[in-house]
Specification:
489 residues; mainly alpha; 2 domains; 1% strand; globular
């Protein structure tokens, strides 16, 4: 596995020495390992878990910047230049604004009265700054920088289709490990433990039941990750390993049932249903909806322009949809039981309304990255007894913490690569369509789920989504010629 394949270029290149090729392979492995394994230590949602991963990613980024593993991945094509400049500009603005929020020379904001109250009560206080939790903001910024490094390395490394496909394989493998662990914990502790961590208040009751969450602390993030793995398995089924003629497989060929059911596809199909089972057992309504939306998006992108030409694929699509409905009806009892309980939804709406109040108090400079927990504690309604440190909506929490204006470049940093992946899925020829479509659809699971939860704020999910968006960006642009429109429907 090396990043120095022939690619789409026509010029002959001198092969790299064996030692350098081995170094490339090692660096690529060091990049993939922390991204794929981040979900295992409690979703990397503790300082002791994500901090070492961030350090490892930083060290690997230095090696990649020195030329190991990336090959020609850092080359920028004409079509790519402008969106990449916009992306880098928005990211720089985001980082600069977060630093400004913690600076004493920042303009007065909604937090000024808090620092004045602290001075009056304690006799001394820190200089008034927009950020009300500077230490938390520092940690959040480090996570964001780690995601940025992962994106840039994935963009360089995953220009090779083999590396891009390897990323999908690792996502499936990682999700499978997480769901397997969830089943073990379900049998042994009724899902009330993650390692030695008790997920419920009080003592452990052998007769008690907790929602399945695997290596994650909460079932919703677990459902999101299982859904991402399921969509990745579907993408690999479509991608296959077929080696066609020079023109490649264009999606027009009719294939028999026997030709489709290769050994690898059967394994991937089994894993997809295994991950679907974990998704259903998590009882996460939003996770299930986001997973189904990602799967549907992938199927529609790959079927675009093929509905009349490929009746065999249409039949497979309908059969797959029917199987999912049957499995959902049989195994979705926990999901349905949770759906009829409205208490959680009512509390979440109160949290969102409180977040809007926080935005109104400091609309332009926000409360600082990671400051939602503190401002919510101050504004928490008396009707809500349980403490809460997250808005259960990543876009809404972003506006609370960064303010209305600075939230825009933060959104662009995520949505622009997502849109580029979608554009690649639309405009690349069929044989090059699967990978950007997979990047868009798998990322869609986490992005859509984060509209009503906080999946993207879980480091393990954020790291994987960053890698997928980098891969989708790389695969959306052709190295040898401009992107070509797919055959018209």
């Amino acid at each position: 596995m090396t990043s120095h394949g022939a690619g789409d270029g026509t010029a002959e290149e001198r092969p790299r020495p064996l030692v350098l090729r081995l170094a490339d392979t090692l660096v690529i492995a060091l990049f993939f390992a922390p991204v794929a394994l981040a979900a295992l230590p409690m979703g990397a949602n503790r300082d002791w878990a994500w901090a070492p991963i961030a350090v490892a990613i930083g060290l690997v980024a230095v090696l990649v910047a020195l030329g190991f593993g990336a090959g020609k991945g850092f080359e920028v094509g004409e079509n790519e230049r402008r969106p990449l400049l916009v992306l880098i500009g928005c990211y720089v603005v985001f980082v600069a604004f977060v630093l400004l929020q913690g600076a004493s020379f920042a303009p007065a904001s909604g937090s000024a009265w808090l620092y004045a109250a602290a001075l009056r009560i304690l006799g001394r206080a820190h200089a008034a700054v927009p950020d009300i939790a500077i230490d938390v903001a520092r940690n959040g910024l480090l996570k964001c920088i780690t995601c940025g490094l992962i994106f840039m390395m994935a963009r360089a490394i995953c220009k090779e289709r083999g590396h891009a496909r390897m990323l999908l394989v690792l996502v499936v493998a990682s999700a499978t490990l997480v769901v397997t662990y969830a089943l073990i914990m379900q049998v042994t502790t009724h899902s009330c433990y993650v390692g030695g961590y008790l997920k419920k208040q009080g003592t452990y009751d052998p007769q008690g039941q907790c929602l399945m969450s695997g290596t994650f602390v909460n079932s919703n993030s677990f459902a999101c990750y299982a859904g991402m793995g399921m969509v990745a398995a579907m993408a690999l089924i479509f991608a296959g390993r077929r080696r066609g003629p020079a023109a490649g497989f264009d999606g027009h060929d009719l294939q028999t049932f026997e030709a489709l059911l290769t050994g690898s596809r059967v394994v991937l199909l089994a894993l997809a249903f295994f991950l679907l089972g974990g998704l259903l057992l998590s009882a996460s309504r939003a996770g299930f909806a986001a997973g189904m939306a990602g799967a549907l998006a992938l199927a529609l992108l790959l079927m675009r322009g093929r509905w009349r030409e490929r009746p065999d694929l249409v039949r497979w699509f309908l059969v797959g949809a029917a199987i999912v409905l049957v499995v959902g009806a049989i195994a979705g009892s926990a999901l349905l039981a949770k759906a009829v309980r409205a208490e959680e939804s009512g509390t979440r709406i109160i949290i969102w309304l409180t977040a809007l109040d926080a935005i109104a108090l400091s609309p332009w400079l926000g409360w600082g990255l990671g400051g939602f927990a503190d401002i919510y504690t101050i504004l928490q309604p008396a009707s809500v007894v349980q403490p809460n440190d997250l808005a259960h909506s990543t876009p809404l929490e972003t506006v609370v913490e960064l303010g209305v204006l600075a939230a825009v470049p933060a959104f662009i940093v995520v949505l622009l690569p997502w849109g580029v992946s979608l554009r690649g899925a639309f405009r690349r020829e069929y044989r090059h369509r699967v990978l950007p479509a997979a990047a868009f659809a798998i990322s869609a699971v986490a992005i859509l789920h984060s509209m009503v939860d906080f999946s993207l704020q879980i480091p393990a999910i954020g790291f994987v989504v960053s890698a997928l968006l980098g891969m989708g960006w790389a695969q959306a642009f052709s190295r040898g010629r401009p992107m070509q429109a797919a055959a018209a429907a």
